[in-house]
Amino acid sequence: MERLWAPWRFAYVTNVSGGPPECIFCQASEGGVRLPSEGGVRLPSEGGVRLQPDPSRDALILVRGRVSYVILNLYPYNSGHVMVVPNRHAPNLASMSAEEQAELMTLTRHAEIALTEAYAPNGINIGINLGKSAGAGVLDHLHVHLVPRWNGDTNFMTVVGNVRVLPEDLGESAKRLRPIFERLANEEKTGEHAKIAEKI
Ligand SMILES: [Zn+2]
Q1: C-alpha of residue 22 to centroid of ligand 1, in Å
Q2: Measured in angstroms, how far is the CA atom of residue 47 from the centroid of ligand 1?
Q3: What residues have CB less than 8 Å from 20, skipping those under 6 apart?
Q4: pLDDT for 137-181, tens place per residue?
């Protein structure tokens, strides 16, 4: 299947030699990462593609908890592909504190609700890849993937003949999802979430 216009995927594909100099999730936990369209990725001619942290920008971050955050995947498998990440550079569940475990699950729950509201997918893959052999793209910093799925995975993508247009712009995804995460965080504070959980 041929793919059209996917600058972040292009960046990914050409980023075969070096990769980010530091852990991308640690950078994001400290201050955010620029979108490629905002100059966050160097051209291959400039010595390889590389993400640049920018403390003033939180372009990909959707919400921050006390010890973890939710971030859009820069190389989405589908529209709405997000990750829940502990702030700390922790490699696995075994090394998570009780607080980290609890908040990771709370934010994963919020992400499930937000994706369901914003995209109405037919299903959602939720998973953790530990280690290279398991398919982890970023090693030694645990992250929970949530990938909305549609029957045939054609929603939000235009299919013309055999050409598939890739997921929506990441800025657009952030605009859709951020207000939902904010509302859920407020509901969590006020205890409103318990009532909602009872209804479901
Ligand atoms: Zn890290």
Answers
A1: 8
A2: 24
A3: 27, 50, 51
A4: 888 899 999 999 888 775 444 444 454 456 688 889 999 999 999
DSSP 34-45: --GGGTTB--GG
Token pair 């991308």 is at which residue? 24
Residues 6+ apart with CB under 8 A from 159: 165
Distance CA 102, CA 98 (A): 6
Return the structure tokens found at 66.
């006390």
pLDDT at 159: 45
pTM over 0.85: no
**Beta-carbon contacts of residue 171 (< 8 Å; ≥ 6 apart):** 35, 37, 59
Contact 185, 110 (CB under 8 A): yes
Tell me which residues are annotated as active site: 143
Residue 11 CB partners (closer than 8 Å, separation 6+): 36, 41, 49, 74
- Give 173 Cα–ligand 1 centroid separation in angstroms: 24
